[in-house]
Design a protein that fits this description.
The protein is of the alpha+beta class. It has one domain: Ribosomal protein S16 (S16 Ribosomal Protein, Chain: A). 36% of the residues lie in helices and 37% in strands. It is built from three helices and five strands; from the N terminus they run E-E-E-E-H-E-H-H. A five-stranded mixed β-sheet has the order 4-3-2-1-5. A hairpin with a 2-residue loop joins strand 1 and strand 2. The radius of gyration is 13 Å and the shape is globular. One of its GO terms (cellular component) is small ribosomal subunit. It comes from Fragaria mandshurica. Belongs to the bacterial ribosomal protein bS16 family. Its main location: plastid.
Amino acid sequence: MVKLRLKRCGRKQRAIYRIVAIDVRARREGRDLRKVGFYDPIKNQIYLNVPAILYFLEKGAQPTGTVHDILKKAGVFTELHLNQQTKFN
């Protein structure tokens, strides 16, 4: 099973997180399948590769709680919902 999860980067006391698609059995700093964005909580910056995120969500990837909140704030789930509606119509 694949999860969309945060992977810690940066130096001590200045954390930056990559949003990655990763196997659930891998550790936090383990090898990821693909980098799909980053999140800087200090500067409150978010970059998302939306097509890659939509691809993994359509294939059944589960976002963690924090990643879910970031994606919800960015409006990714509304785009996912619209894509699913157009496929069925």
